[in-house]
Amino acid sequence: MNKKLFLTAAAIPVALIVPAVAGAAANTVSITGQNTVNETLKASIENLPANSIVKGYQWYYVDGSNDSTNKPISGATTASFTIPVEAAGKAVFVEATTTNGDKYKSEPRSINELKLSITAPRIDSSSNYAVPGELVQVAGAIVTDDAGAKLKSSQITYSYQWFYKVGESFTIIDGATNDTYRIPNNALSIGITDIMVNVKAKVGTAFVESEFSSVVTVSNEPSESMIKEIKTLLINDNKYNVKSLESFKAEVTALESKYQALSTAAKANVTNYDVLKRAAADVDLISKLNEKVDKVKEVNEKDLPKYLKEIDESYDKFDLLQRSLDINDALYNSIKNILIDPSHIEEFKEVRRLNQAIVELLAYKNSFVTYVPTSIESLQTAVETIEKDIAKLSQTYRATVQNQTILSDAKSDIKKIEQFIKLFDKLSQNDSPSKQVTTAKSIRTSYEKLTYKQLQLVPAKYISTLLQAENAENSQIDRLNIEIDNYVGDVDDSYPIDPSVTSWQSHVNNVNRIINEYKGLTKNSAAKIVGYDSMVTLQKDFKAAEKIIKDMDAYQKLSVTPGVAESKLKTNYTNVLKAYNKLTSLQQSLVYNANDFLLNTPTITVDLNGKEPADKAAALALKTDVDKLTDVTKYTFTQFESAVNAATTKYKNLSSAGRKYVTNYYLLTAASKDLSGVKSFHKKVQTAREETDATKQAKKIQTVQTAYAKLPANQQFLAKQQYEDLLNHRLEDVNAPDITKLNNEIAKIVSNDTYTVSIEKINELSTQYNKLSSSDKKRITNASILTTAVSDVKKVESFMKTYEKSFTNNPTTVIKAFYKLTSKQMSLVSPEIRQSIIDKDQGQQQSNESALKLVESINSLLVNGEYIDDLETKVKEIRTAYDGLSASEKSIVKNYSKLTQAESDLKKVADVHALYVPSTEENAAARKTWQTAYGKLSKKLEILYNKMYANDL
After folding, report:
1. Collapsing DSSP states into helix, strand and coil, what is residue 656?
2. By the 8 A CB rule, do 633 and 595 touch?
3. Which of 41, 177, 399, 539 gives 20 to 30 Å between its CA and that of 332?
């Protein structure tokens, strides 16, 4: 394989293999293509030796007969060669080089010379004139080759020279050698009145020069002509030269188009363009307002007042110059016709009726305010009727309806009552009592936040439902109290029940049920249960007694069981007896099998092998004495103490053999323990008795009471005398709270959703409650009533500060705050203050005839958009009357701005009049000032001026 065929393009840019061609001219390179600039010549290698491989080309300019003087053309190294402008008039040839180093060249080709021609240039300007300051530009001057070369713009180099006329000749303008020329602003003053331009072009070495352009005159004529035409738009500074709006609009539009066609420099010289610009704007304003007036009939009734007001205000803004476009006041009269006000008399009557209807929604009784309609439905109907009638009034008179806050308050109150009634959806008689009470509590909270007016709107059936739900647990409370009383009422040493083997479990179940029911009660209901703690103690006592009952039953079975040793029986009996004796009196009263047990003492045999001790009789006598100790009710404490001590001494004096006959010695031991326990208890009693401070003694007595409740039954009996003596002779604490009295007083502070006591009384009860101990506070079942009352007192005290600070100078603030108080809070405000607030509110609500008449007077200042005659006098009268009104009365005059506008307009007219001077040559400048000010007056003020200062015109 010939590897040369695989040379890369980088190594050999072009490599062509020349095939053998029969009959071809030998060893020459031929050239095809036209010999013209910008055309392409191509080298042909068909005549080279067969299988020649051309690796490169080079094009040359022919320069003499010697090859060494020929110049290679830079970059022309391919088979194709685009003829550059530099080649025009020269000869070129191409040389091909093979891979063997052989070189073959073509015959020379002569390139055609360029025969350039150029069209005459022209000066581009915005008009037939060039304006000082204008930037003019050369156009035309198109260069072509008559020999047929297609020239490119990048191959042509232009040069320019501008000339201006001096006399009958032209001379160059120094430095004006670009395709554009900025005519000096002072061209006319320095003699540059006519200009022309000459263009030269060069392509390669060829050169051509144009003829001179046509002469363009430098002049301000376009600007001056425009200024003159614009001046014709005005008759004077305050009047357009207009015969009809349509023709004037067409004229302005034409002038604007002409102005826009001017050059920037020419525009800058149009010194009065602002007049044209304003005329265009004024025509547009008048045209649009005409269109708006024409569309009045298309506006719906609701939007018409606003629409008419906009029309009136728009025309009122026109100055005298603008109004001159309103030929014969046609637009003004049209506006007057559509603005003619209907009679105000009927509307004033309706305003007064509505004011009275609103006030009559409220009733005042016992220093409280209520709605006359007693249901939300009737109140809703009354409010809607009034609002519909207000909506029928014109916008002006709608604003004069007083006391509309009563309507908004009524709607707000209706909404609150509807929301309150909806709370009852959560309440159902099918709910458990506790759930009903809980839900009722939430409803009650919302109820107590209602104001006095709102409360009167709540239907009675909902109040009844609320009370039923709040008392849903009452029957349960009553039943539980009866059941608890049956179990623990009037308890002394024993419970008022007589349990038996058959009734035992029933009692236990009942006690457990009562306790569980109590736990399910709401907090307030649970506070009404009496003796719950005693029931809890009973529940515990049942458990303690139950164990002893079982032990006694076990002993009874053991006692009839054959073969049981006396010692075992005795031990069992003794243990059960000890446990029984540890029970309190109340606990022992529950042990229904105690008598059977106590009567079934074990038989104990004394065996001394036939030997009887000498003190046997004494021992048996002691045994009899010990048996008597089991019935402590036969003794006082002192007697019992003597008997126990005597029996103990006798027992100690017996011989060891004699002691064995005292088979009930365990009873003596138990009696000794009872004696010791009572003595210990007596010490506590004595400590409490010796305390001289009543409060401290009360606490110590509580300790004694707790200790007494825990004593076993025998000890309780023996200690009872001193215990009761302590209780009966305790020190009297004159400062000790009377819980029952305090609780009852708190319950009475509220009745029918109002407080029946003063703020001072609530604070006094609060002080008493706060001094209670934690345990005593728990006994105050009406604490929640007091808590709410204290909160209400704080709010009322805050309100009273507002009252004292603002009632005289700003009663409205106080009235608003007063009506935000709830029914109960309002009742804490003294009747005198309540009445003063209500009186003030009523005073503000009354229809104020003088204020309404003032509204009417102010409206009468303008008739069909024009001020009345003798306006100044009328305005002063109204101003005096207005200044005499109170602040609340002034708030009724909703059209007060019309009065201030009239005062302002009077001043504007007076200010213009102050500039007036007669028309004389000496007063020309001052007269001009007056005319300018007069021209700026609106149509309404122009008419007013003419009425007030007719002699000026």
Report:
1. helix
2. no
3. 399
Q: What does the angle CA 315 – CA 318 – CA 322 come to, to the nearest 5 degrees?
A: 120
Structure tokens at 191: 């003699």
Secondary structure of residue 703 in the 3-state scheme: helix
Q: What does the alpha-carbon distance between residue 633 and residue 641 come to, in Å, rounded to a whole number?
A: 13
Helix (H), strand (E) counts: the chain: 40, 28
Backbone φ and ψ of 337, nearest 5°: -65, -40
Owner of token pair 């040493």 = 493
Name the β-bridge partners of 32.
42
For residue 312, count CB atoms less than 10 angstroms from its CB and return exposed for 0-12, middle for 13-18, buried for 19 or more. middle
Is residue 336 within a helix (H) or strand (E), and if so which, with residue range? helix 330-338
Beta bridge partners of 216: 195
β-partners of residue 139 are 122
Length of the chain (residues): 953
Distance CA 939, CA 941 (A): 5
| Residue ranges of E strands in 654-783 | 750-751, 754-755
SS3 323: helix
Q: For residue 82, give both structure tokens.
A: 């685009």
Query: Which residues, in sequence order, are CB contacts of 676 under 8 Å at separation 6+?
Result: none
Task: For residues 924 and 932, give the distance between their C-alpha atoms in angstroms, rounded to a whole number.
Answer: 12
- The neighbouring-strand residues paired with 158 are 201
The type of residue at 286 is I
The label of the residue with tokens 């005096």 reads 880
Q: Packing angle between helix 713-728 and helix 665-690, nearest 10 degrees?
A: 20
In single-letter form, the type of residue at position 469 comes to A
- Region for 609 from its dihedrals, namely left if φ exceeds 0, alpha if ψ lies in -120 to 50, beta otherwise: left
d(CA 239, CA 481): 104
Tokens standing for residue 145:
């080759």
Kindly report the number of other CB atoms within 10 A of residue 46's CB atom.
12
Instruction: Give the 3-state secondary structure percentages of the chain, helix then strand then coil, rounded to 5.
Output: 55, 10, 35
The number of CA neighbours under 13 Å toward the Cβ of 235 is 12
> How many of the other CB atoms lie within 10 Å of CB of 861?
18
- Cα 752 to Cα 286: distance, rounded to the nearest angstrom: 71
Strands annotated E in 75-205 = 80-82, 91-98, 103-105, 109-110, 116-118, 121-124, 129-130, 135-140, 143-145, 156-166, 169-172, 180-182, 194-203
Tokens of 447: 């109820």
143-145 and 754-755 strand pairing: unpaired
Among 100, 87, 204, 118, which residue's Cα sits nearest to residue 157? 204
Q: Block means of pLDDT (10 residues each) for the chain, length 953 residues?
A: 31 42 55 93 89 92 76 93 93 93 91 93 82 90 92 93 92 93 90 93 92 91 89 91 89 92 86 93 93 87 84 89 87 78 65 85 84 92 93 80 86 94 90 88 90 89 88 87 88 86 93 91 83 91 94 92 90 92 90 90 81 90 91 92 94 91 90 93 92 88 90 91 90 78 89 88 91 84 89 92 89 87 88 86 66 83 86 92 82 86 92 90 88 89 90 84
Q: Are strands 754-755 and 862-863 parallel, antiparallel or unpaired?
A: unpaired
CA distance 180 to 162: 9
Rg (CA), the chain: 64
Residue type, 305: P
Nearest residue to 660 via CA among 770, 595, 567, 736? 567
The tokens for 463 are 């109040």
Region for 167 from its dihedrals, namely left if φ exceeds 0, alpha if ψ lies in -120 to 50, beta otherwise:
left
Q: Work out the number of other CB atoms within 10 angstroms of the CB of residue 156.
A: 19
Is residue 220 left, alpha or beta, with left meaning phi > 0 and alpha meaning psi from -120 to 50? alpha
Coil, helix or strand at residue 243: coil
CA distance 375 to 78: 110
Alpha helix ranges (H) inside 807-848: 811-819, 823-827, 831-845
